[in-house]
Amino acid sequence: MTSLDKATAVCPANGGTKDEHIHDHAHDHAHEHAHDHGHVPEQAVASCCAAPLAAPALALAASTPTRLVVHIADMDCPAEENMIRSGLKRVPQVSRLGFDLMQRVLTVDHADGARETVLQALRGLGFQPRMAQDAPAPAMPARQGLVRIVAAVVLALGAEISHWLGVPEWLVIVLSLAAILAGGVQVYKKGWIALRNGQLNINALMSIAVTGAVVLAQWPEAAMVMSLFSLAEWIEARSLDRARHAVDGLLKLVPDDVLASADGQGWSRMPASQVQAGWSVRVAPGERFGLDGQVVDGISAVNQAPITGESAPVDKGPGDEVFAGTVNGMGELVYRVSAGHDGTLLARITRSVQEAQANKAPIQRFVDQFSRIYTPLVVAAAVLMAIALPLVWGLSWSESVYRALVLLVIACPCALVISTPVAVVSALASTARAGILVKGGVYLERARQLRYLAVDKTGTLTLGQPSLDQYGSLRDGLDSEQALALAVALAERSDHPASQAIARGRHGAAQSGLEQFEAIAGHGVQAMGAQGQLRLGKRSWVLDDAQPAALSQAEQQAQENGASMVYLGDGKGLLAWFAVLDTLRPTTQQAIADLQQQGVQVEILSGDHEHAVRHIARQAGIADYRAGLLPQDKLERIEQRQGQGLVAMVGDGINDAPALARADVGIAMGALGSDIAIETADVALMDDDLGKIALLMRRSRALHRVLWQNISLALGIKAVFLVLALSGQATMWMAVFADVGASLLVVLNSLRLLRARS
Known about the structure:
Blueprint: E1 51-52, H1 57-62, E2 66-71, H2 78-88, E3 94-100, E4 105-110, H3 115-124, E5 130-131, H4 146-165, H5 169-196, H6 202-215, H7 219-248, E6 257-261, E7 268-271, E8 280-283, E9 293-297, E10 300-303, H8 305-308, E11 314-316, E12 321-322, E13 327-328, E14 333-337, H9 345-356, H10 362-393, H11 397-409, H12 414-433, E15 436-438, H13 441-446, E16 450-455, H14 457-461, E17 467-473, H15 480-491, H16 497-504, E18 515-520, E19 524-529, E20 532-537, H17 539-542, H18 553-560, E21 564-570, E22 573-581, H19 588-597, E23 601-605, H20 610-620, E24 624-626, H21 631-641, E25 646-651, H22 657-662, E26 665-668, H23 675-680, E27 683-685, H24 692-727, H25 732-751
Helix pairs in contact: 4-5, 4-7, 5-6, 5-7, 6-7, 6-11, 7-12, 7-25, 9-12, 10-11, 10-12, 10-24, 11-24, 11-25, 12-24, 12-25, 15-16, 24-25
């Protein structure tokens, strides 16, 4: 499979099937396990999973069609998706469709001027489309006809009891008809629309079954089937709404109003959505932050658990970043807003979780494929039964038709199909609350198979905040402070942790003017100065692969102590050396031990020299390590390990980009506040805790168990009732439980994932 085959725009599509499509990529990958990641404009969120209908994807990419995003309250099943897809195929101006069955959002890419045509086509199919931005969240079913459903159940019970007591037949018929009308008006309406468009969804099948029961004079049973079906649909809708709102609940952590000022003078409370970047916001002790920003005044401790999953407060002062949804401690803070309401880190996390639903887990794809085959087969079996039983076995026509109707009731897999994304959404939401942002159900379900984990050293195993420990001159006539001044001039323009450590250790050293600055990945930085070309980086690169000079005693001692060595040189040779020390993260040893207990082989892939890498490997308890690697060397090592089990790479998402992209699962470490990590990684750890990978594996196993439990339970119940129906032992109301009853069980089972603890 090529990268074009796998191209998938991030979108909140969840339950429905969708065709593959093309979008702008941040980078391309060249083998089956490659991952395509791109930045999707915010206005395209929830609508960019459009599947091609008629126009080829590449041809469409060359143009810019108009995009319509609508909310359709009745679109929550693959049957409705198929109906819409078939209906809009007849509209030539439509080029792509995207379905989000969980959120009931439809995306249509169409030619200019065709918007009203598309809306009319949808209305002609019996749907009521509303603009997604204007549509309220799906109302809780408790406010959508509970009284009517309860009345239907009571009337159906009355008809059943009356039949048992032998009351006049006309009273049984009246009670039954009243129950059918009370609970089945919407069912019949949706069923008729489906039949009119050549579709067999659950409403069509239920309408046929109830009507058939009425024709066969099975009045109490017809009433009971319709009322039980309506009640089960109501309960299922409540369960699905809980899953739908699980992700949106993240945004509820953000207060609606904040105390803000455009000029830092006049303060007033206003909606957070009206505050612009650059404004100032004041947060009192105990309040939640409404927007992202940078502290300009005050000192406090902030609880960042809503984002990182860790409840330990983090000290904040002037210059530190704060994030929407986190909780201020005991001190008042004033911060300058860095992003608008829709651009906060929490908003991006929420969108990422919604978009992650597009990358389906393998089990979800299996269910989708199964549903395309299952319904036609069962319907065909029902028709064959109705005809064959009287002709071959001499059964009465009424009995054979009744058995066929029972089969029809359990013929639609809609509930089964929607129950798998409920599990995935629940797992994604609970994992995000634990500080692990997973970019797709496929990665979450895959993580349980992790067998090899490659980790970068700096910023992953270590704190990533090294300090300058020692330095010395290697050129006669150049003292150490002069060498430091030259190194600082180069280091201040580099974002590498070792360079930053040198820059922080300047001790007032004067800067030197440099030109033609250039960063060389895996080597270091260089620029032109008064002395000619200067290089700061690896020893071999600074010497330009010349025969290296012997190390001084001070250099050797620094390396043996685990320091990372950085060298400064010019065209004539080395000028100075700098020893930079980093510290192992407090959680690293336990995290590595936990991973190894789960059967994961951990290996360090680092560009640092061997002494420093070996020192950290020993401290972390890692036996395998490779030092002095360039980015392409890390990539080659990942490729060597693939095929021996699932391979993951942990890095910063920038220097390790090739290896992260090639790994089966790319994990960005310490993604808090990092746009690049959130946008490009398959998994982003929002804090700096490597132990979250072991937690991710446990969540993955839990999701896998629930998915297979759901499939086994739903299919097992249906299989039992299929046998009972074929043998004439099942009744219609029993078949209702086989369909919607099984769905309720698997949905409730899926919602258990929302309660997962860290």
